[in-house]
Amino acid sequence: MVYGCLYCARSYQKTLSALNFADSKTLKEEKREELFENLKADDSIGWDVDVIDPKELSAKMLKKSVYLDTVGDPEKYRTKLSQRFPAIKFVVAKKADSLYPVVSGASIVAKVTRDRALREWVLDETADNTHRNFGSGYPGDPETKAWLEHHKHLIFGFPSLVRFSWGTCTPYLKDMVEVLWESDKMDEEGSGSSHGKRQLKLSNVGFTPSKRKSEEIESSGKGRCKFFQARKLEQVVHF
């Protein structure tokens, strides 16, 4: 995810309109690069970008609780921002990057930075069948869809380049292995929810050596994984 901003003096707005900025998605890559270099060379214009990688974005989404009925009402966003920053006048509009030159410039900054980041991205995954032909990275790009289909993993999902909360990933995630995460709270002595599952230590399922006394090992299996209980399997030290 790349956020871009562009700023200038209000007296410079007429000049800004003459620079032929437009919604970055409507411009060819060569034109975006040209306009980006022009605005960088203009001392009357300031700009900045914030690049957030998919892992950071997904991790921070898990730390927040947000309840929204809709995200499409500009007036609600304007009201919220005005309440938070009362000294600033906000203009919030749909398709603002095609209506206001200053937003068009910010769109170009973000788009060029995004494209460059994708070209230079170093994939964490090193499997032989991993390739970089992921296209533009937009939902409607057939090359992007083909890349997602080729790189999906039934257990681990997608490479770290992909944000799993991206709506485009949803159809692919439906075909993956369902994982049941057990609660890490021990439900002992009647505490905790009766609906939660007890997370067992590895020693309880026979994967690690146990230091308990032999008489403790020869138990009824209480507290052990249901797989072993159902098959009446017990831990033994002597055959």
UniProtKB/TrEMBL annotation:
Keywords attached to this Swiss-Prot or TrEMBL record, sorted alphabetically, are: Endonuclease, Hydrolase, Metal-binding, Nuclease
Q: Where is the composition biased (Basic and acidic residues)?
A: 212-221
UniProt GO BP:
DNA replication, removal of RNA primer; mismatch repair
Q: Which organism is it from?
A: Carya illinoinensis
Query: What protein family is recorded?
Result: Belongs to the RNase HII family. Eukaryotic subfamily.
Protein name, UniProt field:
Ribonuclease
Q: Name one GO cellular component term.
A: ribonuclease H2 complex
Q: PROSITE patterns, from UniProt?
A: RNASE_H_2 (PS51975)
What does this protein's UniProt record list under function? Endonuclease that specifically degrades the RNA of RNA-DNA hybrids.
Q: Which Pfam families match?
A: RNase_HII
In alphabetical order, the GO MF annotations are:
metal ion binding; RNA binding; RNA-DNA hybrid ribonuclease activity
Metal-binding as UniProt keyword: yes
Residue numbers spanned by region Disordered: 188-221
State the needed cofactors, names only.
Mn(2+); Mg(2+)
Show where the RNase H type-2 domain sits.
Answer: 1-178
Q: Which reaction does it catalyse?
A: Endonucleolytic cleavage to 5'-phosphomonoester
**CDD domains in alphabetical order:** RNase_HII_eukaryota_like
Query: Which EC number(s) are documented for this chain?
Result: 3.1.26.4
